[in-house]
Predict the structure.
Amino acid sequence: MGSEIVSIADVAEIVLGGTPNTKIPEYWNGTIKWATAKDISSVSGKYLYDTEKSITGLGLEKSSAKILGKDTIVISARGTVGKICMLPYPMAFNQTCYGLIAKQDIIDPHYLYYNLFCLSEQINSLSYGTTFNTITKKTFNDIKFKLPPLPEQQKIASILSAFDDEIELNNEMNKTLEEMAQAIFKHWFIDFEFPNENGEPYKSSGGEFVDSELGPIPKGWKVGVLSELCDVNMGQSPPSSTYNLDKKGISFYQGVKDFGTKYPSVTMYCLAPKKIAAKGDILLSVRAPVGEINVAIEKCCIGRGLAALRMKKGANNYLYYLMLNQKNNWTIFENGSVFTAINKAAIENLPIFIPPVNIIKKFNTLIQPVDERILNNTKENLFLSQLRDTLLPKLISGEIRVV
């Protein structure tokens, strides 16, 4: 049997989400995850695991929101149109999204998910609106594609899912490793349980403390400012005429919009960089939102939305976890609900505890293999993503057959 031409509406039930009354507290902060287009747009992988808000069973009952099951595809329908993800377990969503429940006797849900990637430009071309781009249920009737037989769909989905499954495993490992490293940092430098000269936890073993303007600190530590630990390199945007998407020059990060979980994603290159960050430098967002951080995965150009921080002595592992734990201290630059930009002096003069060099060195020695594993997993995911994205249109179009 060959392929047939179908619409998305032919092969999936299209369900619009809903929102409980926001003025009734009993409808909110329950156990039912409730997704929005914002949540979907922030997904970096195949599945949406968490949502900014949740609703109660009563909120679900008293609204048009619906719980849709595992492997439902959710697509953003307003604003950033066409972002998609799959549900790993049942959840609800609002009216900025549509749920696509695959008719599994006709189409494999994972095949539909991958097929939608190839249809994203067509979906966007059918959106309308002056303030927000929007798609409607009719859009899913208008989008046609070739549907191969179900066994072929399943083989294609299996190949592409293998890439995403490996990426997901690496992401889960990275999350665990990052949490472990953060827990060690907190134990050593916030709870003051770093190992003493006998290898015992300092505070629990009766370590001596002295008073400081930031509170009691271990003897031998001091209170200082960030510039005593690291150099601060403020970004500067190159001429826009040198920007390109053709990988000419070096990668260019303009601000927090380029940030990932730990490492930024390259979306732009430039031929005439003004300010350079080295591989391993800590990238700090200096414009709203202030205080977000990533790590430079390679030598790169940084725009005016970023600063690059580098330890004066030793590796940057300690500095990365220190800056993660300083995020709340940037609220002094908050104006109402909006963060203003910060300058070099404000960064350099951030008050911090400064442990002895030997303690920082011990931490770096312990954590460096962990950070290297996270980096290697990230690089592997980049390779797997590129390979998957190369195969995806060829498999979906039938250029490569798997019958």
The radius of gyration is 25 Å. The domain at 4-147 is CATH 3.90.220.20 (Adenine-n6-DNA-methyltransferase TaqI; Chain A, domain 2).
